[in-house]
Write a structure and sequence with these properties.
485 residues, alpha/beta, Aspartate Aminotransferase, domain 1, Aspartate Aminotransferase, domain 2, seven-stranded mixed β-sheet, 41% helix, binds pyridoxal-5'-phosphate
């Protein structure tokens, strides 16, 4: 039993299932309609008293979960920013499980430590961040925020003579968190986890393009000039993909002793493209940046990246060593930079993706997905009964479906929008979700998968058109004429 061959049968079986899955991705429905009871009835078996043969476990797993999977790794998933995986990253991800390295310490896996070191250096170059910034590979952007903001917490309180790692937050000067009024929920949760609380948030109005206004920021900071402050900027707002004007805002924040943190979960990757780089001008002057690998870089879950311009603050916030100021610079122990102890060696998949694509390949994914988002939004907007609320600046847009009755109210349009969005999803042809933006329900269009093709766009537009015809909102317009796309 110890030859290693006991894995053969199960690995072969898993490989066959995976191959079949990958081959079917382009044609299968993006998801099937399944009720919680249906999916539970298959998966929730009684706790097994005795074991089951490994290949049977795999076969039954594949069968049991089939209708509960959402096939976001295919080309017609446009809800949220999800992305798929490029081939080398999938291969490396499989090997990561096989190698089963513990990514906590250099001593536990010198290869993983150096792979992460390399990923950090490469990504800093790709994203235009300072060469001297420290970094960490995390489960996603959520934990990247926690890591960056823990470093920020250390730094802004240190300036007030407060050692937060030693003294905690009881009795500490209150930290305020200044941001635009549309911030991703993961940022607010990071603030809660770090003990700042949601009430630390000072939300400022944004301009018509969704960008934080320099005058509003300056005024807010001058209102309380001595408070320890973190300013939060966005590279790619979640609904519209808006970018804050970094060249104007960062100097204002720094003149007021604030730390500048950037949420660039997907948007930072636009820096790899000559066409979109201008949106990120001045990005390298911030103090910390959080981004994802499992979104626009198209690496499998889970991986996000934190970068911090002040390595001492980063290390002080994360290290477990009693005296964090004395350390061996020879090798990287990830534990000094990450909030986890034992952890998956998640560097291999990122390393493989960047090698497979190169800088130009990444830029191509960015440009191609932006182009597809443009086409999708404009072509849906051309259908009768639809309108464009936000034409993509990058890969994010918003559309809305209108109730055609002459006396229709905004609430009717909201209802119609949700109805059509659900109907499209239920066709299995494409997957969208709704969002509320500036008080209106809309359908979010997000393209971040390298696999999306022109054919996928055509199929999706046809599906939307079909649903607009098939689910007329009002009795008066039971057969609505449709414009050609
Ligand atoms: C997805 C996203 C996050 C959260 O990232 P996770 O990887 O899901 O933790 C944060 N901010 C923005 C703008 C996002 O799009």
């Amino acid at each position: 039993m110890n030859s290693g061959f006991e894995y053969d049968a199960v690995m072969q079986r898993a490989f066959q299932h995976a191959k079949r899955y990958l081959a079917s991705l382009d044609d299968r429905p993006v998801s099937t309609v399944v009720t919680p009871d249906q999916i539970r009835s298959r998966i929730k078996r009684p706790l097994p008293e005795r074991g089951t043969e490994a290949t049977q476990v795999i076969d039954e797993l594949v069968a049991d979960v089939a209708d509960g999977l959402v096939h976001a790794s295919g080309g017609r998933f446009f809800a949220w920013v999800v992305g798929g995986y490029v081939p080398a990253s999938l291969g490396a991800d499989w090997l990561s499980s096989t190698w089963d390295q513990n990514g906590a310490l250099y001593a536990l896996s010198p290869a993983e430590a150096v792979v992460e070191e390399t990923c950090g250096e490469w990504i800093k170059k790709l994203l235009g961040l300072p060469e001297t910034a420290s970094f960490a590979l995390l489960t996603g952007c959520q934990m990247a925020h926690v890591t960056c903001l823990a470093a920020a917490r250390h730094a802004v309180l240190e300036r007030h003579g407060w050692d937060v790692e030693q003294q905690g937050l009881f009795g500490a000067p209150r930290v305020r968190f200044v941001c635009g009024d549309q911030v991703h929920g993961s940022v607010e949760r990071a603030l809660r986890l770090l003990g700042f609380g949601s009430e630390s948030i000072v939300g400022l109005p944004v301009d018509d393009d969704g960008r934080l206004r320099p005058d509003a920021l300056a005024k807010a900071l001058q209102d309380e000039p001595d408070a320890p402050t973190i300013v939060h900027l966005q590279a790619g707002e979640l609904n519209t993909g808006a970018f804050d004007p970094f060249t104007e805002l960062v100097p204002i924040a720094h003149a007021n002793n604030a730390w500048v943190h950037v949420d660039g979960a997907f948007g930072l990757w636009a820096n790899t493209s000559a066409e979109y780089q201008h949106l990120l001008e001045g990005i390298g002057t911030a103090d910390s940046w959080a981004t994802d690998g499992h979104k626009w870089l198209n690496v499998p879950y889970d991986v996000g990246y934190a970068f911090v311009a002040h390595p001492n603050a980063h290390r002080a916030a994360m290290t477990h060593r009693a005296s964090y100021l004395v350390f061996d610079e020879q090798v990287r122990d990830q534990m000094d930079w990450n909030p986890e102890w034992s952890r998956r060696a998640r560097g291999f998949a990122t390393y493989a993706a960047i090698r497979e694509l190169g800088r130009t390949g990444i830029a191509e994914i960015i440009e191609q997905t932006c182009r597809h988002a443009q086409q999708l939004v404009m072509r849906i907007g051309d259908l009768s009964g639809a309108e464009v609320l936000w034409a993509p600046q990058i890969n994010q847009g918003l559309v809305r479906f209108l109730d055609q009755r002459p006396d229709a109210t905004d609430a009717d349009h909201d209802r119609r929008t949700d109805e059509v969005t659900t109907a499209i999803r239920e066709t299995g042809e494409a997957f969208f979700y709704g969002t509320t933006w500036r008080g209106k329900r809309c359908m979010r269009v997000s393209v971040s998968n390298w696999r999306t093709t022109e054919k996928d766009i055509d199929r999706t537009v046809a599906a939307v058109q079909g649903c607009l015809g098939a689910t007329p909102a009002g009795r008066e317009v039971t057969s609505m004429p449709l414009d050609a796309p």
